[in-house]
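Please, structure for the following, as tokens.
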Amino acid sequence: MKITISRNQEKVEYKLPFKSTTLLKALYHIKNYQDSSLTFDSNCRSGVCGACSVRVNGKEVLACSHKIESGDYIEPLKYHKLQRDLKVDKKEAIEKLKVAKSWLNQPKEDATITPDGVKVNEKQSDCILCHSCYSACPVLEVNPNFIGPFALTRAYRYITDPREEDSKSIIDSIQSNGIWDCTLCGECTAVCPQGIDSKMDIMMLRSSSAQFGYSDPNFSSMDFGFGGGF
């Protein structure tokens, strides 16, 4: 089996003694027996922490759970500062959680969580911050200031939290470079290893925004062609 790895923007091919294995096992084999300088991230090795996310043949995956095939091309996540080989700096993307105010801003003193209340945002709470959705998002190609899918999913998780008394402050924070910039392409949903539907979360955030008087700012600049004759 042969795979190719992007190493500081150069393609390097490696031959592996496996017929079938996970990408993470292959990376450790290369590091231990072929090239100790190969650099990548990993931690739990169980699909829980999200540290080992990379791209294989143009799609974001977790290296610890992805089964490789001969001819696969592995590269680092997009829209992150490359540190070395497959390792990227995720700090800038994480900072966007602050932009979206993705936490309890004003907790209710007497709020309680019921089993039904937990189910409302249980799926969004499963986010492991692997950054797969962020790397897959085409909006970041043209707008690096876009808040990004995982921060918006986290915003939705907290506006639906019954303990949050001031959901409007969260809604206010995601109007610029946020929900209206999303193209609803669904790439974020397609690559999420946790099955989180960020596209739907963003649509729900748009609905909540409308309740607070917001609307898509792009509508005002659209020409629907009603001015012409027939």
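The chain has a mean pLDDT of 93. The two ends are 64 Å apart (CA to CA).
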